[in-house]
Amino acid sequence: MRRIRLFLEMIKFEHTIFALPFAYLGMVLAACGWPTWHQFVWITVAMAAARTLAMSVNRVADRHFDALNPRTARRALPRGLLTPAQVWGAAVISLVVFLLAAWQLNGFVLRLAPLAVIALVGYSYTKRFTWLSHWILGATDGAAAAGAWAAVRASLSDPIPWLLWAAVTVWIAGFDLIYACQDVEFDREMGLKAVPARFGVAMALRWARACHVLTVTLLAAVGWAAGLGWVYWMGLLIVAVLLIYEHSLVSPNDLSRVDVAFFNVNGYISITTFLATLIAVLARA
Questions:
Q1: CA distance 206 to 208
Q2: What are the boundaries of each domain within the chain?
Q3: How large is the C-alpha radius of gyration of the chain?
Q4: Pick the CATH number of 2-284 from 3.30.365.10, 1.10.287.180, 1.10.357.140, 3.90.1150.10
Q5: Tens digits of per-residue pLDDT, 118-143?
Q6: For a tag site, which of 30, 164, 259, 266 has the least CB within 10 Å?
Q7: How far apart are CA 41 and CA 16, in angstroms?
Q8: Beta-carbon neighbour count of residue 250 at 10 Å?
Q9: What's the pLDDT at 72?
């Protein structure tokens, strides 16, 4: 039990809250209401397994960098509280559970699952060769919204899942740009690729703002394409205000409140978007 607690703390399992509401958003829009409980349960299982797989691989892949970085040196792997073999074992179990969930949903999702696995495993290595890693991370997480749509419809022919995917991609890329500002000097020293290390903190924060303006624009396109009512638009207004607040917390000269911007505000954004969408869809039905 102690190792399980250490593992869940290491992968920040509670941060599934960032992506799960957007997966549910795709699910609700695809179902034009609440889906079957079978779909809901297996979408949830797939999401939790996918994130656990991705974070397990990430922690093993970055363990040597984490040991050298003062911000991450207290993680379980650098401290020897867990072994790479144990974390790889958890990754394999997560992979099996993810594929099982895809099989339980429908054949279309199962056929797409290998592509999802490549992204979930591969994104952790992208920082070694491209500063576009922020958007690759965003696209990997954003696939959850499109995947949940596919789990209900067994198709991606509608523009809505693609708009959702794009919205989540730039949303997550935006706050990952902010978060990466903490490691500028370390990334430069280690030769790791990131926008703050390549172009500076001020430029990274400007790009993050641009990403979040695009996030609101794409979510507005989702609302228009889905024909959602005033509750959705009120929720989107709240999201815009939260994003403005998030950016007010950080500046090139003061990154002391990055954790508040990253963890708290983004959790509120994802939950607000999902609840506003759910209410709007149920009201329309």
A1: 5
A2: 2-284
A3: 19
A4: 1.10.357.140
A5: 999 999 999 999 999 999 999 999 99
A6: 259
A7: 15
A8: 22
A9: 85
